[in-house]
Design a protein that fits this description.
Elements lengths: L4 E12 L3 E12 L3 E5 L6 H8 L8 E10 L2 E2 L5 H6 L2 E4 L11 H7 L7 H15 L1 H5 L10 H13 L5 E5 L7 H18 L2 E6 L2 H7 L2 E6 L2 E7 H6 L1 H7 L4
Parallel strand pairs: 3-8, 3-9, 6-7, 7-8
Antiparallel strand pairs: 1-2, 1-4, 4-5, 9-10
The protein binds adenosine-5'-triphosphate.
The site of adenosine-5'-triphosphate (ATP) has 16 residues, from strand 2 and helix 1.
Length: 248
């Protein structure tokens, strides 16, 4: 990996329950400051790839049995998920995972739990998150479980921002949301990328929106990368149009 690469996944294989081979040699790189899309149908292996990177497969009886993963030039497979968060790589899980009984603000503050730079810096970042997500500022005292799906997705991304990340692994941010909200969330992701310098690896089934915001994309099928390229190139590719964009 060069200095321009923040994340590199090198030919990883993942097996669940010692027998179910799900990733069959996946490689990808994310340039520093980039937005990269990981595309593919339901079950292709997108979530497994993200969890392999953040070391969250253990809870699902999954193992990386081959290959290597480097974040900021450092091999990360031996690190705990918390160590990885401290180094600046945060996963936002599919399904949002806000604490439903806590307020939006309390949820955001839980994102700062690994930080040691004091309450003034945390308060400043809370304001930064509210500036990007004005809806969260409006709803700061609301119990997260009673806010909308879009607000919970924003809360999950905002909470990740509270850890001071250099990279966010974002799993299906569009899931279950109306098109206009999807657009609103991707616009904010773009702002976080451009202004805060956060790199994103974005798993999405919504190929068309992902390719509009990412600069590069990988398409997974059956646990293998079957195609990759510049986002513009992919969105003009005939097979991608037919199978993933629903136009012939
Ligand atoms: P989705 O959009 O549903 O998240 P995905 O592309 O992220 O799809 P994965 O969730 O990574 O796909 O799943 C890839 C394959 O691994 C699927 O065939 C799935 O059934 C299988 N799988 C996922 N989790 C487990 C598990 N804990 N044990 C066994 N098999 C699993």
């Amino acid at each position: 990996a060069t200095d321009n690469t923040i994340l590199s996944v090198n030919n990883i294989e993942v097996i669940y329950d010692h027998v179910i081979l799900v990733l069959k040699g996946v490689s990808l790189t994310v340039p520093r400051g980039g937005i990269v899309a990981l595309l593919g149908a339901n079950g292709a292996g997108k979530t497994t790839t993200l969890k392999a990177i953040s070391n969250l497969l253990g809870a699902e009886r999954g193992d990386v049995t081959k290959g290597s993963i480097e974040f900021q030039g450092e091999e990360v497979q031996a690190l705990s998920p918390n160590d990885l968060v401290r180094r600046g790589c945060i996963q936002v899980m599919e399904g949002r995972h806000c604490f439903g009984h806590l307020s939006i603000e309390e949820n955001l503050l839980t994102g700062a739990y690994t930080r040691k730079d004091g309450s003034a810096a945390i308060k400043r970042d809370l304001e930064m998150v509210y500036d990007y997500f004005p809806r969260l500022r409006e709803r700061r005292q609301s119990q997260a479980g009673y806010t909308s799906g879009g607000e919970q997705q924003m809360c999950a991304i905002g909470r990740a921002m509270m850890a001071g990340p250099s990279m966010i692994l974002l799993d299906e941010p569009s899931m279950g949301l109306a098109p206009q909200l999807v657009e609103e969330i991707f616009e904010i992701v773009k702002q976080l990328n451009e202004k805060e310098g956060v790199s994103f690896l974005l798993a999405e089934q919504n190929t068309s929106v992902a390719l509009r915001y990412a600069s590069y994309g990988y398409i997974l099928e059956g646990g293998r990368v079957v195609m990759d390229g510049e986002a513009k190139e992919l969105s003009e590719n005939q097979d991608v149009k037919e199978f993933y964009l629903g136009v012939g």
